[in-house]
Amino acid sequence: MLSFTGHKFYAPKGIGGLYVREGTPLVAQQDGGSQEEKLRAGTENVAFAVGLAKAIELSAESRASSVDKVRKLRDRLIKGVLEIPGVKLTGHPKERAPHLASFLIERVEGEAILLLLDEKGIAASSGSACTSGNLKPSHVLLAMGILPEKAHGSLRLSLSKETTKQEIDYVLANLSAVVAKLRKMAP
Q1: Residues 134, 135, 138, 139: is their CA dihedral positive or negative?
Q2: Catalytic pick from 1, 130, 143, 185?
Q3: Are the beta carbons of 79 and 93 closer than 8 angstroms?
Q4: Is 166 annotated as catalytic?
Q5: pTM assigned to the model
Q6: Of 129, 90, 135, 87, residue with least CA distance to 107
Q7: Is the pLDDT of residue 184 over 80?
Q8: Which domains does the chain show, CATH number per domain?
């Protein structure tokens, strides 16, 4: 099986898909109508499904150029962030998703960085969206052997096909200042 969420490629939020290989046994989760081969009751959101199909089509058409553009911007972002002393890139330096960059920043808390970046209009996270609001260090970083005290200084930045060079430069200028400010405040 393969599940995916549409908003990751500009479909409406709230729509996704599930591919099920033929012959995979499934058990109905809701009783009711005969939709989805009697496996799911309820009315499908046709407008969102059409939006999902169109988003898939548009993504496939522009994939190569979008990925190349985003990868170049991501590399610019990574290079600039790594110029800040005490910052380490997490994950493989080259074999990584083209739209993500994740870092460990020594002597600062990830949540404090997020608050100060938010004041500058910069959206960032200290982990995956599925764990937002959780103040525990990322279980993924811990599984990579990163100590909890270091994992608390994580910063994750995402790019999109709409991201510009000017936005990357804005993030770099502000992140450097935010890290310096937080380190000055730290005991």
Answers
A1: negative
A2: 130
A3: no
A4: no
A5: 0.77
A6: 87
A7: yes
A8: 2-54 (no CATH), 63-185 (3.90.1150.10)
